């Protein structure tokens, strides 16, 4: 299992994946908004999305786990 974490404090602007989606390393999975700038969050490895712990509009803290994925 691999965790995808927020690299900044901000708001979840858009979730680009759904549970069960296959992603490759560096694919954008979430877009955070911080200080009116969009910041993409990328998958750390190839895998499958298992759980999404946030929803669009949620405020998140730096290092907060956003998505749990199963590594390939």
Automatic annotation (TrEMBL):
| Keywords associated with the record | Biotin
Family annotation (CDD domains)? biotinyl_domain (cd06850)
Q: Gene3D superfamilies recorded for this chain?
A: 2.40.50.100
Sorted alphabetically, which InterPro entries does this protein's record hold? Biotin_Carboxyl_Carrier/Decarb (IPR050709), Biotin_lipoyl (IPR000089), Single_hybrid_motif (IPR011053)
Q: Which domain of life is it from?
A: Bacteria
- SUPFAM superfamilies per the record? Single hybrid motif
Membrane recorded as keyword: no
Q: What is this protein called?
A: Acetyl-CoA carboxylase biotin carboxyl carrier protein subunit
Which lineage ranks, top first, belong to the organism behind this chain?
Bacteria, Deltaproteobacteria, Bradymonadales, Bradymonadaceae, Bradymonas
């Amino acid at each position: 299992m691999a965790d995808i974490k927020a690299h900044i404090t901000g708001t979840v602007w858009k979730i680009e994946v759904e549970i069960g989606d296959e992603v490759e390393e560096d694919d954008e999975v979430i877009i955070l908004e911080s200080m009116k700038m969009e910041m993409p969050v990328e998958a750390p490895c190839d895998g499958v999305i298992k759980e999404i712990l946030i929803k669009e509009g949620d405020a998140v803290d730096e290092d907060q786990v956003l998505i749990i994925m199963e590594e390939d």
